Amino acid sequence: xxxxxxxxxxxxxxxxxxxxxxxxxxxxxxxxxxxxxxxxxxxxxxxxxxxxxxxxxxxxxxxxxxxxxxxxxxxxxxxxxxxxxxxxxxxxxxxxxxxxxxxxxxxxxxxxxxxxxxxxxxxxxxxxxxxxxxxxxxxxxxxxxxxxxxxxxxxxxxxxxxxxxxxxxxxxxxxxxxxxxxxxxxxxxxxxxxxxxxxxxxxxxxxxxxxxxxxxxxxxxxxxxxxxxxxxxxxxxxxxxxxxxxxxxxxxxxxxxxxxxxxxxxxxxxxxxxxxxxxxxxxxxxxxxxxxxxxxxxxxxxxxxxxxxxxxxxxxxxxxxxxxxxxxxxxxxxxxxxxxxxxxxxxxxxxxxxxxxxxxxxxxxxxxxxxxxxxxxxxxxxxxxxxxxxxxxxxxxxxxxxxxxxxxxxxxxxxxxxxxxxxxxxxxxxxxxxxxxxxxxxxxxxxxxxxxxxxxxxxxxxxxxxxxxxxxxxxxxxxxxxxxxxxxxxxxxxxxxxxxxxxxxxxxxxxxxxxxxxxxxxxxxxxxxxxxxxxxxxxxxxxxxxxxxxxxxxxxxxxxxxxxxxxxxxxxxxxxxxxxxxxxxxxxxxxxxxxxxxxxxxxxxxxxxxxxxxxxxxxxxxxxxxxxxxxxxxxxxxxxxxxxxxxxxxxxxxxxxxxxxxxxxxxxxxxxxxxxxxxxxxxxxxxxxxxxxxxxxxxxxxxxxxxxxxxxxxxxxxxxxxxxxxxxxxxxxxxxxxxxx
Length: 741
Known about the structure:
The protein is of the alpha+beta class.
């Protein structure tokens, strides 16, 4: 439709509706009864097919339908989560409750009373909060500017995550511990991944937990969003990879000199879905909703869940979740997975794990509806012409005994009107034994000489999938064959496939296709590298420092940045370089100074990795007071004499170069900041400065009671407390780095 015809149509609409132009004028050009002034009508929050479908399936308790629909039409409340692993979490909570939330009391915005944020009753330790403020109000209202800046700044520095309430549930039910190997199969944009990283770092005194998180996403661009989220937490235990979750490669690890398959202790399987539980924030869903989306996604969801179950260790836990209310994407996937697992998987009863959370038990009976409203109660009723669109796995189990044994009522469905949230579905699966198709050892090439022909689906795989590669079959080999032997056999088979063609067997494995940007390699620094001894000497690194875990991203030329990963992730990287496409891993710990050769060490410390590195550093540490920290963060290059006498005594005889500035809380003064702070700094000729990114700088000042308003960039940051020293703190990391160079 052209611009003119659109204009004519708009004129006609206005003529048909007397008073609409005046409405627009009265609203001062805001949204009128007719819609936006650009001619885009407001989306009507109604969909008769949606209502008919869910009323027929009875997912809402009797008498609650009107409340359910009313809740769906209301905007979603804003929710935030305080990151639980940093020692600063309690301080941020204290700051939120005693300062920002108090300022919101008795406040009115656009005639609407602002409700003071409340903690989510089911989230542990009051670390998650919700408010009736929508994102739009937060951004636009001058009265809320300070609170909005606080949220933006703390989110950027990784101390707060703005995350939907229901999205916090799957990681909590995963019940991850610091020693667990965790796979997040469909991880982007990464809010759940950050929760999992926090669980690994539950004990802040352990810089390298035994566990790790491998976060995967099929979309290359979204992987970088995932990297951005994970980077805020500065963990050496996260690796971002880019694969199709339904055929994510099986990885290997070196265990006592033998290669063994990596099985995960915890798997989060938050699959792509039609998203009809997100109608409150994605208004488009009202207009676009149809059962076709669910019918098309069901197969992919089942394949992803199956792949996750294959890679789960016996006794491990997998959480399957969707932001859809549709049983085709929810219970049907779980029932089908349980059926083909033949007892290897079972649904865990998690009803008591999140006290305070309201949920509905999973359905045990449902029907399938086509996009034009035709219902089918069983697979036998589906005409042949519909067989490509509707599959047998979409229906509930026929055998009542089998259905009862599955305990589908243990699934959780969260409805929007119960606790003012989005709609959501979660199921927790526990693996009791190997999947049935993994118990058979892989056939060696040449064991079968039948001509290649159509493969008939076996009873163990009702989806009719042909397993693409024998390596996928040996999650738990048959008795009498060790894991390593099975892996060796499969590897030999892989090599044979490359040499011979036309021999019967499963189809040859597809070569891994790389999409998106070509990533720089991950190169571990050799043990005898001359780069390391000057660093070790300058910072007096202890003998326990794991130098084998240092890596760089350049094969040739000057290495500018040094990163660090945990021992377990190093093992994964070294043993799977050909098998997996790694987008990012490691936390930056050192950066090269351009003029570093003048000093005893060419590398300065990076703030990003200081909490990982600090436990191993034994020299160049300056203990500072709270007043010193304020001066260092608000002045650009304070002279030594501005520091306290204790700090001055430590710094005056120190050689030029990178330093660690450490603040230890005083438990005898409970009114002062009660969490330790470690900052990177630079000792110059007569002055000292910190290398701290802007948002982290603002975070520390806030924790010490200094509110820094972000003025226009040219004016710089202005501390509003009287105790603040002169302004002019460097605006960003780049500014700090230039100062050093």
